[in-house]
Specification:
The chain is of the alpha+beta class. It has three domains: about 110 residues, Phosphorylase Kinase, domain 1 (2-Layer Sandwich); about 170 residues, Transferase(Phosphotransferase), domain 1 (Orthogonal Bundle), CATH 1.10.510.10; about 45 residues, no CATH class. Helix content is about 40%, strand content about 15%. It has a five-stranded antiparallel beta sheet. Strands 1-2 form a two-stranded antiparallel ribbon. Strand 1 and strand 2 form a beta hairpin. The longest helix is centred in the last third of the chain and has 44 residues. It starts with a strand and ends with a helix. The N terminus and C terminus are likely disordered.
Amino acid sequence: MELDVRNGDKRVIPLNRHPDFSEELGYQVISELGRNREGGRITYLANILNSNQQVVIKEFCFARAGADLSGVKAYQREIEILRQLNHPCIPRYIDSFEMPGAFYLVQEYKNAPSLGLKRSFHPEEIKQIALSILEILVYLQKQVSPIIHRDIKPENILVDEKLNVYLVDFGLARIQGAKVALSSFIAGTPGFMPPEEQFGHSLTEASDLYSLGATLICLLTNTRSVEIGKLIDDNYRLNFQQLVPQINPRFWWWLMKMVERNRKRRYANAAVALKALGRIEVVGSSTRIENFISTIKPKKRTTLLGLATVVTLAAVAGTLISYQLGNTVGQLSEARECQSFDLNASCQENTRH
């Protein structure tokens, strides 16, 4: 007997329920990490015999009631995607095999709990998590055929005590621009799914940014994934500013741009979002104008910021023009003085400079 402690659940599970891969494949199952009964998915922690390496074995039992063809496709898609990837923050693909009634995927094990567990982070730590995930997304988007994860949420992000971050579960991932069956369009998690996914529009490199933004907002507000609906207002926008008044308005603007419902108003891709975030302080004082602008609705805020930019440029231009006019008038005045008093050549020479 043993304790199953996934997600804080302490239930006794008989050891004989674990599959035995030791003789044929060399994997010895240690414990069960997670289970999706409806989808027929179980995740195990295992040892590779005669080594110190631990692995994760993901089982998809297509013979189990409730499992369907979409699960088989997700399994095959995840293997296809993982075989292409080589990034230290994405657990690497090791092996896959099939047994009667089930498929199995073997991946590198990372000793880090998911953000789906109840944990608290300082805003600066949340920024570090954001930077790490954005770097992973930059890698995915720079592939010859860019990859869209499609299911970024707290449960699919692992973070250890040293803030090392890992992105997992590529079962819904797909190549950007690849044709997808209509039934698989709406396949993300409610609350984290970008609006274009919900309405069957094409996904872009900005699509995963929405999901990441929603995830970061959950972390900032200590909101569980299943309760994200509490942060969505009557206009279907994530509204959280009152819950975290201490964050810098610039960071708040950055987050709101990440979760813009119109994908064309988000950052174009992870690289652009990463560059923008790197210069922002998460916690700190703000100017009065920043506090004022942060209370304005997004569309009006954009207009106001545009007007402020125009006014600033006009002011700078006006200063330059005034300087040039003043300088010219001064030179003409000096020249007239030279002529009036019939001074020597050195005076007229000075008016030329």
